[in-house]
Amino acid sequence: MMARLLLAAIAAAPGRAPPSGAEPPHAQVEEALLRTAYPGYQPEQGWLGHSEGFLVGRSSICLEGGTCLLAVAATANRPGGEAVGGHSWSSFFALRPAGAGWVEAGYSAGPVISAAARWRLGVSILVDGDGPFLVVTTSTSGGEDGESSATHLWTWDGAKFLPVLTAATTLQGTAVSESSFALCADRPQDRPSWELRTREREGTGKWTESKVRVRWNGQAWVERAGDRPCGDRSGSVAVASATPAAARGQAAVRVKAASASRTAAAPKGRPGATAAANAVDGDGKTAWEAGGKKGGVGEWLQLDLASSVGIGSLQLVGTCPGPDWKAGPRLKKIRLRFEDGPAQEETLADIPTAQSIAVKRTGPARWIRVELLEVFGGSGRRNACVTEATLQAR
After folding, report:
1. 52 phi-psi bin (left φ>0, alpha ψ -120 to 50, beta other)
2. Which residue in 100, 114, 151, 277 is deepest, having the highest Cβ count within 10 Å?
3. What does the pLDDT look like over 313-345, one tens digit per residue?
4. Tens digits of residue pLDDT in 25-77
């Protein structure tokens, strides 16, 4: 099932991008940005230069203060709308005016596609009250794995490009599961401007749907349960998955080992399917499933660090993997403990994506323990899971 990207004209908020920011003031600016990023650019052939490939798509925006962002989609083969086979990629540039030209102020390589099947790749840039979002959409069809699509959200924090969300949906057999982030058109001042939508069904059965209003706070999506859902009009739609959001300006903390108080019994023939190590393996399809008889309440997951270090934040996916994530208990309230010092309690949103928790402990730690205090109720699966747990240094 292909994901569609819907773009809406977004009025700039005070202190954000100027009204002309939906596109550069004129085409010459975008051409100048492309020529700065790719000195060998030949617009007639769409050739970006040796090892740079052919131009598939581009989008740019100029922010208040003069810096312009440029997103480029390229391919090793000559583009033709929908291509078959080959390798394609995206790149992000931040450029600022200097004299009569432009200089590069930031760069990042974005998502890529390597597929023998049909594929599409698109880039766009959105601006709302939370800042600029660079959007890369990819889709493949006709391969051994059927049809799939993904949307990747990145942001620019004024110094570097940061991944915010990697989102994916697939059609396997007769089961369909879709998640999306919608940019709400009806967003009051200082209110959440995005909505997380999920729906799923088997075959031609009825869709099971849910909606949660959220806001991007610079490190994670934060639920605002008191707000009504988005209106029918919305902006960017991106399919969503449980990929942890990158914490701003922080380095990853290496986890040496993971352990748990109790682990659910694993299915026959899959001895490690519920193990604690699954929470730190970087695979969104595996998880630690808590043992016990209360949905996992009272159990804990401990991360032992490779060295004593100050922890700035914990990114946690507190749901079980798969399209039926609401069938089981989901983490609602947790307590963080360390080898010494006070504990810290936090309340999580009921969403299948990573949530970032700022760690209040200022000194170094050798380990961190996540205790399950309360869960959202489920209808099928026995106990709660932690699909992914990652740490960022202070």
Report:
1. alpha
2. 151
3. 888 889 888 777 778 898 989 999 999 999 999
4. 446 788 889 999 999 888 888 889 877 888 888 888 888 778 899 999 888 87
This prediction's pTM: 0.51
Amino acid present at 147: E
Q: Is 35 helix (H, G, I), strand (E, B) or coil?
A: helix
Which amino acid does the sequence have at 157? D
Beta strand extents in 64-220 (DSSP E only): 68-75, 83-84, 87-98, 101-114, 118-128, 131-143, 146-156, 161-172, 175-184, 194-202, 208-216
Buried b (16+ CB within 10 A) or exposed e, 82-109: ebeebebbbbbbbbeeeeeebeebbebe
The CATH-assigned architecture of domain 255-393 is: Sandwich (2.60)
> 12 is written with which tokens?
């700039």
Domain limits, the chain? 19-239, 255-393
Rounded Cα distance, 368 and 44, in Å = 57
Question: Distance (Å, rounded) from C-alpha 17 to C-alpha 184?
Answer: 18
CB count within 10 Å of CB 226 equals 8
Taking residue 140's Cβ as centre, other Cβ atoms within 10 Å add up to 22
Nearest to 30 by CA among 12, 90, 21, 17: 21
Check whether 300 has a pLDDT greater than 90: yes
Can you list the alpha helix ranges (DSSP code H) found in the chain?
Answer: 27-37
Nearest Cα neighbor of 68 from 59, 77, 57 is 59
Residue type, 242: A
Helix (H) or strand (E) holding 390: strand 388-393
Residue 249 Rama label (left phi>0; alpha psi -120 to 50; beta): left
